[in-house]
Amino acid sequence: MAAASRPVFVGHEIYRRAAYGGNHPLAIPRVETAVDLCRDLGWIDPAAWVESPVAGAATLGRFHDPAYIEALRRADEDGEIAPETRGRYNLGTLENPVFAGVFRRASTSVGGSIAAAEQALAGRIAYHPAGGTHHGRPDRASGFCYFNDPVFAILTALDAGIGRLVHADLDAHHGDGVQDAFAGDPRVYTISIHERERWPHTGALDDTGGGQSCNLPVAPGFTDADLDLLMADVVLPLVRRAAPELVVVTCGADGLAGDPLSRMALTNRALWDAASALAAEAPGAVILGGGGYNPWTVARCWAGLWGVLNGFALPDRLPPAAVRRLEGLDCDLVDEEDRDPRWLTTLADERQDRTARPGTAALARRALNVPRRGRWSAGVQRAAA
């Protein structure tokens, strides 16, 4: 692989700092453990590492309201938040706590997604697992997301003249913030596969986000075979019809079996295959992280995804340093009896040998008949036929 086309890993040491507070689902080591596993495997060449910049207030103001930006900055600086600020901006709540360094951490995530988009514009796959805060709203925090970094990756691409872009969201929760940010923009198509009847309770099948969104709300127990079917019959045909010049993929790990905040049942191999297939559909790709609340499954998934994107050989058994690292993790949300011993010694899950459920096939057929606009208006009907 030519050096100019090799994937790059966008990261920052800020993600090693304690965040969110002790009782929050994100108070687990996710990104830093994935990075360390990659290093244990010898997978991060210094030439592939891109240090994430920190987005400034002017940049953040491209999407977020200045008053909200200032409210988050002040809350971080003061270490407290007034009741009226909490109510207006959804800050300082159990969902979106204010913790030391929250403003810089969220701003670094945005800066990383901007840097990833710049790399993708040069024809690379840019991997930024600390990104994927897809629920953030212009004027408030939402769903553990303070700023919406995927929006900034997309804005960076549009600013560079990209005329066709697809955001594909594989997180267990609907990518509501990104869909709404670009509803009606003829340059941006969004696709979201998410568990139905789960927070934020949006993304119904008939929700087309202004005509250029495809939402696939799936049933609990969603398996590899179900994902394979939706990718083959709906997602990839629509992506190809859109003919994107760049793709942005939010690859949350909360759809994996064993995650405490969803009832999906995917293996990491299925997610790797889906993300890799999407990345291959455009000259450049941004691959972000997202949700994921089981530290063992998240770290293994995101480390392995970096290996797959680079074509590295996946080990049958992790090296001793990686095993010790995983053995040192803990999570109050995952009971001892529910912890698979293979999470400590292996990187890749065993793919499930099943067939897609009838409900998934029915969902695919219905999705292809939902009227949409732009390049999808003809593509949907053609695929359905």
The N- to C-terminal Cα distance equals 39 Å
Order of helices and strands: EHEHHHHEHEHEEHEHEHHHH
Helix content: 25-40%
How many strands, what sense, and barrel or not for the largest sheet?
8 strands, parallel
Residue stretches low in confidence (pLDDT < 50, at least 5 long) are none
Rg from alpha-carbon coordinates: 19 Å
The structure class reads alpha/beta
- Total helices: the number is 13
Strand order in space, largest sheet:
2-1-3-8-7-4-5-6
Give the strand tally: 8
Report the principal-axis shape. globular
Give the integer mean of the pLDDT values: 96
| Residue share in β-strands | 5-15%
How would you describe this structure to a colleague?
By secondary structure, the chain is α/β, with parallel strands linked by helices. Helix content is 38%, strand content 10%. The protein is built from 13 helices and 8 strands. It has an 8-stranded parallel β-sheet with strand order 2-1-3-8-7-4-5-6, with helices on both faces. α8 packs across α13. The radius of gyration is 19 Å and the shape is globular.
